[in-house]
Design brief:
Immunoglobulin-like; single chain; nine-stranded antiparallel sheet; alpha+beta; about 40% strand; five-stranded antiparallel sheet
């Protein structure tokens, strides 16, 4: 509404100014003053909108409940593509490459735009008085590449980004996701597998625990487990029929709806660890994708007779 009033005031002032010869000099002076004031106010409001754009941008959830830090010594030396959660919708990461060496980890954060001049691995307040900020280089595709130190994966890490337009620092929270790395990146297997448990093809049941979300949703336990060709599939039965999609390792699955329950058949990546998944619920005013973890307890696996 305020923008509309300013625009109308500006148009009115201009219209009055155009009457020129029919207006007295005092009226012209008043009109010019109004025009100047309206233009100044509009300019100030536009600047304020840009400044607050970062501060009021939607905040995203990062990481997942129960995540455990993964240090460099748990990984094999090499370079890996890795997913990164960002708390700000304004800080969009197009891609990221994790570099694991003998002395620790760094990552190339790749951004499509030139919106940021520098990054600082810390808070925005620290960045304002700190030296050693991280400038970007440009890759062959014209993208901005920031090479940053990574203390640990699956940990909330503070990062400040310097706006190229406003030259102001804005705080972000990043999580470099260990679950997005291939199994070959890890020195030791993170979980029990069909092979390590010696499971033969067949039908089983297994206890499963759901963590995350608001705590209102639940899934049926024990759940049906199918082993075929060395792979495990679990039948996840939700407490409601309001879930229309699940995501496991970037693969999407749709449900069948049975007796008021959404039922998904999803792969079990491993047993005895918090397996990250996402589920989209339509129970709210707008659909929401919610992060959960599922823990399949290998000690409870029972073969169906």
């Amino acid at each position: 509404m305020k923008k509309t009033i300013i625009a109308l005031s500006l148009l009115t002032a201009i219209a009055l100014a155009s009457c020129g010869a029919d207006s007295s000099s005092s009226e012209q002076s008043t009109t010019q003053a109004a025009t100047t004031a309206a233009a100044a106010e509009a300019s100030t409001e536009a600047e304020t909108a840009v400044t607050t754009e970062h501060a009021t941008a939607p905040q995203n959830e990062v990481g997942y409940e129960g995540m455990t830090e993964v240090k460099a010594d748990a990984l094999n030396i090499g370079n890996y593509y890795i997913s990164v959660d960002s708390s700000s919708s304004m800080f969009k990461i197009a891609n990221c490459i994790l570099h694991v060496g003998e002395d620790g980890m760094t990552a190339d954060i790749i951004i499509d735009s030139k919106s940021y001049d520098a990054l600082y691995m810390g808070t925005e307040d620290e960045a304002k008085s700190a030296a050693g900020t991280i400038k970007y280089t440009e890759n062959a595709s014209g993208q901005s590449v920031f090479n940053v130190p990574v203390e640990a994966l699956d940990k909330e890490i503070q990062c400040a980004a310097l706006s190229a337009k406003k030259q102001e620092w804005y705080g972000r929270t990043l999580v470099f996701r260990a679950d997005s790395l291939p199994d070959t990146a890890f020195k030791e297997l993170r979980y029990a597998t069909v092979s390590s448990l010696g499971l033969e093809d067949g039908e089983y049941t297994v206890d499963v625990k759901l963590d995350g979300g608001s705590g209102k949703a639940s899934i049926e336990s024990p759940t049906a487990l199918t082993i075929k060709g060395g792979k495990a599939l679990a039948k996840v039965r939700w407490s409601s029929d309001k879930y229309d999609k699940m995501v496991v390792q970037e693969l999407e699955f749709t449900p069948t709806v049975t007796d008021g329950h959404s039922v998904f058949e999803i792969p079990v990546i491993g047993f005895d660890y918090k397996m990250p998944v996402s589920a989209n619920t339509t129970a709210m005013s707008t659909p929401h994708m919610i992060d959960y973890t599922l823990t399949f307890d290998s000690t409870t696996i029972k073969k169906c007779e």
